[in-house]
Amino acid sequence: MIEKSTLQFLRSLQKNNDKSWFDANRPAYEQAKENIDQLAGEMIKSIAGFQPGVGHLLPKQCTFRINRDVRFSKNKMPYKNNMAIYINEGGKKSDKAGFYMHIQPGASFIAGGVWGPPAPVLAKVRQEIDYNLAEWKKIISAASFKKYFPEGINKNDSLVRPPKGYDEDNKAIEFLKLKSFIASTTFTDAEVTDKDFGKKATTAFKAMQPMVNFINRSMDEGGST
Fold it and tell me: pTM value?
């Protein structure tokens, strides 16, 4: 679970997002980071129960630096206001679909799938959906999936026109226009600090495993025929 002190640190950071404050409060950051690393270790072990390919990962391969890359951003705040975990077979730097946990006061959520993949990967996922639309629809309409992700696949990151090689009347066009393939659900501060948070997140992640595996299959095999 997430310690209340971790959320408190992130609240304070949001109000005091500068290096001098961060340096003065580094012990609080280290405590929060240790909490996230511990949760990452627990989640790796839990997810490996149904996704064996992640069992070899270490927390450091799945957690992110709190420092922001401000080189090309108008927002020059040096630190993120959240702490996050991404678990997939290749670790956080991999293009593989996986399981994401975002911890932020008032805005925590878990998600799964693949966000903004490179063009060659995106093409493979689209092809797999085009070739196996019935299977894809069955996965995202399953009762277990809808229970935890009632809004289904996030369609905010989508093209206006069909991608090259596909027609508007394609039966899968609503999915083929997507640039990311993500499902997510939110958690309140009370929920993430509850002792059963890890178990609840694991159950939700397990419900999206077929979707994650479908996406990764398209990457591994280059799409089915």
Answer: 0.94
